[in-house]
Design a protein that fits this description.
This protein folds into two domains: 3-220, TIM Barrel; 224-385, Aldolase class I (TIM Barrel, Alpha-Beta Barrel). The protein has 14 helices and 20 strands. The chain has helices at residues 3-8, 35-44, 62-71, 85-94, 108-121, 132-140, 160-169, 186-195, 204-207, 212-220, 233-242, 326-331, 348-355, 375-385; strands spanning 14-19, 22-23, 27-28, 49-53, 76-79, 98-102, 124-129, 145-149, 176-180, 199-202, 224-227, 246-250, 270-276, 286-290, 302-306, 309-315, 337-339, 359-362, 367-369, 372-373. Strand 16 (309-315), helix 12 (326-331) and strand 17 form a beta-alpha-beta unit. The mean pLDDT is 95.
Length: 386
Amino acid sequence: MGRFRDALAAPGLGAIAEVKRRSPSAGDLRLDADPARLAAQFANAGAAAISILVDERFGGSLDDLKAARSATAAPLLAKGFFSEELDLLKLKLAGADAALVILRDVDDQRAAALVSYARELGLETLVEAHDANELHRAVALGAEVIGVNARDLTTFEIDRAEQLDLVARLGEHDAVVVAESGVHTRAHGAAAELAGADAILVGSALMQADDPAQKLRELLSRPLVKVCGLTRQDDVDAALDAGADMLGFILVEDSPRRAPAVLDVPGDRLSVAVFVGDAEDAGSDLVQVYQREEGRVRGRDAVLFRNGRAVAHVVDLPWEERDPLHLQRAAAREGRVVLAGRLGPDNVREAVRAVRPWAVDAASRLEAEPGVKDHDKVRAFVAAAR
């Protein structure tokens, strides 16, 4: 393994932050982009690696790669349309740690030759796939880092659902998986993470931001914030405006916060249907299932599922009870933890410091009455949880 792959394989969701001045799909992005300055800022903001566009169609050049190399020790990925061994040699000499190989543009024989020559140079590769056939080719090639691009390079359309399905298929393989394109929010990144991606590649969202490094920090920041017990679209919209990443809808007959259905949630956030016992298909992005417990609306803890696969554990309080050791119990739990249990604007910050959860989840303490949210409390909770 090389340092590019190792950096992306580190625990948690990593990011390849991309420097590009223009995009064929979005046009001019940041024509005055300084690759040296941005590379250093991205590294300081937590990027696992930095991607440099060296193709003139994106406003890039090998000089940009050299400038970035002079400014940071972080792994550098050279991006462009490479089909010849000489291309790779030039990238290596300019300071690249890894190079992009787009399977759409090369056949299997050429792809194998490029990957083999890159290894001889000590250059790693990110092998990019756009569909199921290319994914199969990448696996057959023995690619150690596979990128799954949500953007069709012919139409420039984004298909995130197809991308996440392809990412999930790679769970059976040892490759490090990178979800590319279309990441603009924390929820976009979290969706890729829960599907099985080790990292995201983010370009346009950073280049279009007033402060690219701060945008990167935002995308990688944890915990995610879930507002649950939503029963009205007006409350959903208030939670969205406040910046909530996940919106929860309780579909349990006996709950005082029972929703009529999973309400309208835009594609840049995640919807969560909450059940007790057996889950049903409610059309949500995720499903949260509590155990049944005699005499109570629900059991204590729950599991968060994506397409039937457990992806996180919800550590909660017993129904309408307290537990003085609740935070200690949550902190001791391994894996992704969604912390719940009477969280509100006044105590969530302390809870986050104590537990360091992947997400926080609040419902009852954000209400004006059961099932009706107090919008001021929702805004205060999201702000405090950040």
